[in-house]
C-alpha cells in the first residue's frame, strides 16, 4: 500500500476503527458542538463550523492510528496534532495544500447524516493534479480514512448538501516524517501531544 501512497499522493484505508466506536466519537463531537460551539477564527477555512484543535479524545486517536499510517506509507512518523470539524450543509473546503506540520495527513470519517438528499449521497474529498486539469474524488464511510501528502497535493470538498440536522464529522490526524525535513514540527510546537495550545 505504501507504493500507492507514494505514486498517487494519497491512499484510502478501510476498517481503521470499528463502526460502533465511530458512533461514540460522532456523538461526542455533536455534544461538544452543542455545549461548546467553537468556530475557526483568524481567516477560517470553513467559517461558522464547529472545530477543535488538540481535543483529548482525538489526540488519543492520533496516537492509536499512527502505526496504521506508518504501515500504509512506509515511513517512520512523528505525530503533530489532531483537529476535527462537524461540517454542516453549505460548507465548502476550497482547494488548498497544508502547512509543514501536515506533511502526512489523514482525514478519517467518524459519522454523517444527510437529510433531504438521495439515499446514495456521500460527500467526498477531491485530490487535484499539479496543473489542475484533473481531480480524483474519494468517498469514505465511518471508520475509513484517506492518507495523503498534505503539503504537496491540493485537496478540496465541493459544497456539502443536506437539509436540517445534516452533518459530517471528520477528524484530521497529522504527522511528519521522522527522517524528513519537517521533523522539527513534532507536536506542532507544543510540549507534548494533548497540550491544548492552538496553532491550527
Report on this model:
The protein is of the alpha+beta class and 200 residues long. The chain has one domain: q2cbj1_9rhob like domain (Jelly Rolls, Sandwich), CATH 2.60.120.620. The chain is 21% helix and 30% strand. The protein is built from three helices and ten strands. It has a six-stranded antiparallel sheet. A four-stranded antiparallel sheet has the order 4-9-6-7, with no helix packed on it. Strand 6 and strand 7 form a beta hairpin. The longest helix has 18 residues, at 56-73.
Can you summarize this structure?
The chain is α+β, with helices and mostly antiparallel strands and 200 residues long. 21% of the residues lie in helices and 30% in strands.
Amino acid at each position: 500500500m505504501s507504493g500507492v501512497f507514494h505514486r498517487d499522493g494519497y491512499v484510502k484505508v478501510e476498517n481503521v476503527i470499528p463502526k460502533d466506536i465511530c458512533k461514540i466519537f460522532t456523538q461526542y463531537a455533536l455534544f461538544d458542538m452543542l455545549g461548546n460551539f467553537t468556530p475557526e477564527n483568524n481567516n477560517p477555512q470553513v467559517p461558522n463550523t464547529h472545530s477543535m484543535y488538540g481535543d483529548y479524545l482525538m489526540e488519543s486517536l492520533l496516537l492509536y492510528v499512527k502505526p496504521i499510517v506508518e504501515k500504509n506509507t512506509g515511513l517512520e512518523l512523528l505525530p503533530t496534532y489532531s483537529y476535527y470539524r462537524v461540517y454542516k450543509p453549505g460548507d465548502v473546503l476550497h482547494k488548498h495544500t497544508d502547512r509543514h506540520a501536515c506533511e502526512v495527513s489523514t482525514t478519517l470519517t467518524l459519522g454523517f447524516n444527510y437529510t433531504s438528499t438521495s439515499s446514495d449521497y456521500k460527500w467526498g474529498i477531491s485530490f487535484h493534479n499539479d496543473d489542475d486539469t484533473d481531480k480524483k474524488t474519494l468517498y469514505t464511510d465511518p471508520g475509513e480514512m484517506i492518507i495523503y501528502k498534505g503539503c504537496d497535493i491540493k485537496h478540496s470538498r465541493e459544497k456539502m448538501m443536506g437539509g436540517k440536522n445534516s452533518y459530517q464529522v471528520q477528524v484530521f490526524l497529522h504527522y511528519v516524517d521522522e527522517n524528513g525535513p519537517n521533523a522539527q514540527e513534532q507536536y506542532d510546537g507544543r510540549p507534548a501531544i494533548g497540550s491544548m495550545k492552538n496553532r491550527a
